[in-house]
Design a protein that fits this description.
alpha/beta; 4-stranded parallel beta sheet; transferase; EC 2.5.1.47; pyridoxal phosphate; cysteine synthase activity
Length: 337
């Protein structure tokens, strides 16, 4: 029986997340598919890691001083992580978020004491985009720093120094592939760089939702988006600083329907309640596993990220009316009277 040692700080609870073998996906892939349980972080998502590194980096550079404020533009989870880290360090938080994100994220941020600024969703080129709005608010706020998660490489450093070594140790130095989707790019780039430092033969795959441009970029060198996705927090239309130099070996495009299929199966068969980004990641991991097996690798092991808890999407992914409004299949248990 492994008993976790006691920690001297609540911030030490971030990272060192469990890794679990996913039975259904492993059977579908014909190899081992492992999920990194990032929903066990204090803020219930993988973004806690980036939040901690970004705040510590700002402190180390002397930009964030006692009583200061952290401002960030986010789809929600990074904001939640920053709010928790800022609370623990004595800072205030201002979060700018598109108003089409889940109500649960908005309610959580307000409950954590963050000042929440909602803006309409728009293209990155629009000066009113949530990222640009957060930058301006940081510039206008005395004692504030802009977290800038998309282009602040403290983000991917969290995964180079944390997530990748954890995976390597948990899988006892035997891992054939890793995949996840990209939002800021910090996770896929950081884990990829970290694992390649251990073994250049680890295959790193991008799993992109429809509506994002990176699949085409890595497949044919063109930033071109096709289709759309309701997944929150993933999908990117540009090469962020975190993505620069990412060691992507191959790429997959996964539909919302396929991601939802695995969200449903993991809940119904394995007792994991997850968000859509996790379902998309798992579907990508299955494709990567199949490819590695077809390539002749033996005893294949593939890892992916289980990004956040499904409890953050009760009003969307787990709401029959919402799913119907998006033209998506409804989980059969939500059809019951």
């Amino acid at each position: 029986m492994n008993i976790t040692k006691p920690f001297g700080s609540t911030l030490d609870l971030i990272g060192n997340t469990p890794l679990v073998l996913l039975k259904g996906p492993s059977e579908a892939a014909g190899c081992e598919i492992w999920g990194k349980c990032e929903f066990t972080n204090p803020g219930s998502s993988v973004k806690d890691r980036a939040a901690l590194y970004i705040v510590r980096d700002a402190e180390a550079r002397g930009e964030l001083k006692p009583g200061g404020t952290v401002v960030e533009g986010t789809a929600g989870n990074t904001g939640i992580g920053i709010a928790l880290v800022a609370n623990a360090r004595g800072y205030k938080t201002v979060i700018v978020m598109p108003d089409n994100q889940s109500q649960e994220k908005m309610d959580t941020l307000r409950a954590l004491g963050a000042e929440l600024v909602l803006v309409p969703p728009t293209k990155f080129a629009d000066p009113n985009h949530f990222v640009h709005t957060s930058r301006r608010l940081a510039e206008e706020t005395a004692g504030a720093v802009w977290a800038n998660q998309f282009d602040n490489i403290a983000n991917r450093k969290a995964h180079i120094e944390g997530t990748a070594p954890e995976l390597w140790e948990q899988l006892e130095g035997r891992i054939d592939g890793f995949t996840c989707a990209a939002g800021t790019g910090g996770t896929i780039a950081g884990v990829g760089m970290g694992l390649k430092a251990f073994d250049e033969n680890v295959r790193i795959a991008l799993t992109d939702p429809h509506g994002a441009a990176l699949y085409n970029y890595f497949a044919c060198g063109e930033l071109k988006a096709e289709g759309s996705s309701v997944a929150e927090g993933i999908g990117q239309g540009r090469i962020t600083a975190n993505l620069e130099g990412a060691p992507i070996d191959t790429q997959y495009r996964i539909s919302d329907e396929e991601g939802l299929h695995w969200v449903g199966r993991l809940l119904r068969e394995e007792g994991l309640c997850l968000g859509l980004s996790s379902g998309i990641n798992v579907a990508g991991a299955i494709e990567l596993g199949k490819q590695l097996v077809a390539d002749g690798r033996k005893d294949v092991r593939v890892a992916t990220i289980l990004c956040d808890t499904g409890f953050r999407y009760l009003s969307t992914l787990y709401n029959a009316d919402w799913l119907r409004s998006k033209g998506l299949p409804v989980f059969e248990w939500l059809e019951r009277d």
